[in-house]
Design goal:
Blueprint (H helix, E strand, L loop, with lengths): L13 H7 L14 E6 L2 E6 L26 H17 L3 E3 L9 E6 L13 E13 L4 E6 L7 E8 L1 E7 L5 E7 H14 L14 E3 H6 L1 H7 L8
Antiparallel strand pairs: 1-2, 3-4, 4-5, 5-8, 6-7, 7-10, 8-9
Amino acid sequence: MAAVRADKDQLLGPDIAKTAGLPTVPAKKSLRGAIRVCQIGELRHVNGMAILKLARMGHPVLLGRAAPVEDATAPEIRRLLADMIETLDDAGGVGLAAPQVHVPLRLFICKVPERRTSGAADDAPLPLSAVINPELVLDDGETIEDWEGCLSIPGMTGLVPRAARVTMRAMTASGTMFTRAAAGFHARVIQHETDHLDGILYPARLRDPHMFGYNEEIVRFRDDIMASRPDVPSPR
């Protein structure tokens, strides 16, 4: 899910180790291509930044249902998660699903910045976290429309309805099952990323196809949009 650039201080740091199951040693923060030392599980290695190629709308990898992850602790899964963290930092955003980097597996990483939270119950900040084999239960109550972007649909945004609250059962990268209730922007991010695992891109969720366009144009003509749809949030 597209947003502002990820906070580099969180990458492969203690918060990631705790929430995503990726234990790390201190990494040298430097420019792209520099050497960094990191630890994934029991493997300690030195490598350059691994920026993966993003799949864009129209690629078949984004259209199919992804396969479950059989072993969350497998070295190749931990390496994939580490590379996805680097890729998200490079591209900027709050979430990235494995199919977006041409890997059709049911996992994603996401974060919830404090500035996007409402203070309501279950809508709290979340450090960058790994989510594997998620199962969602959508609340039957309120549905909220808000603007979304996507790293696989660069430069565009759309007004997408989502359940205001969800409950998610999933696995961390350490193989631990957890259940999480989420609301507000947190719930939106989870639904957006889980859609990627089912081959669904956000334009398929639009109620009004007129509420979809290039970021610059949507923001430029926000007054016209708000005049026609005063019930929706202002484009950012």
